[in-house]
Amino acid sequence: MHTDTVKKRYRTPRVSVDVYGLTGRQFVGFVSDLLMAHIENATQLPRPHSGEPQCKLAVFIDALLSRSVAPRQCYVYAIILLRRFMSRNRFYPLTINNVYRIMLTSVIISSRLLIDNPPTLEQWNELSLSHYGPDMLAVFEQEYLQNIDWDTLVSFSEYSAFMQRLDVQAVLRACILDSSHQIYHIALPADEITRLSAVEPVVLFNN
């Protein structure tokens, strides 16, 4: 009932610059840049043995975007949820060593709210290149929801206000003006895919 209500109330607002004006690669850059902006002392790759994929964040985001049916607004919705998650868990900052799984969990939750037939955890596991495993994704989702008190509703006004933020609009415009982002998607090198396959037991709050 709650999910149906959210779907009926939710509409993607019109903004001065929106995500539909971006190519696929530009949108990958947009999502990655917004996430990296929340990480202090961000490095290019997670720490070895952190439990995260040993690839750049943009490569991981592109893997999700190019393989899933989740529309772009799911990723914007997910970032809003992630910001809510961060505001309620200040003792566990977002780092390069946990942002992959926290963002993936945000996308999984947002897809349940915005898609009529969202992917299952087994499918999400495949979409994320089988790095975590469906059982671990279930643990992530439960921890995430508990830490935001199951507050998953993002209203039209909240979505619109987020998209109108000066920093968000600045990232959008920067991605549009970046001529290197004209290719539709980032090809995943074979060695990147290999590094994604190493799985270790992890928890959501691993920093």
Automatic annotation (TrEMBL):
Top-level taxon of the source organism: Eukaryota
Ranges where the Cyclin N-terminal domain occurs: 71-151
Molecular function terms from GO: protein kinase binding
Coiled-coil region: none
Cited Gene3D superfamilies: Cyclin-like (1.10.472.10)
InterPro entries (UniProt xref): Cyclin-like_sf, Cyclin_N, Cyclin_PHO80-like
Record-linked SUPFAM superfamilies: Cyclin-like
PANTHER family noted in UniProt: PROTEIN CNPPD1, PTHR15615
Record protein name field: Cyclin family protein
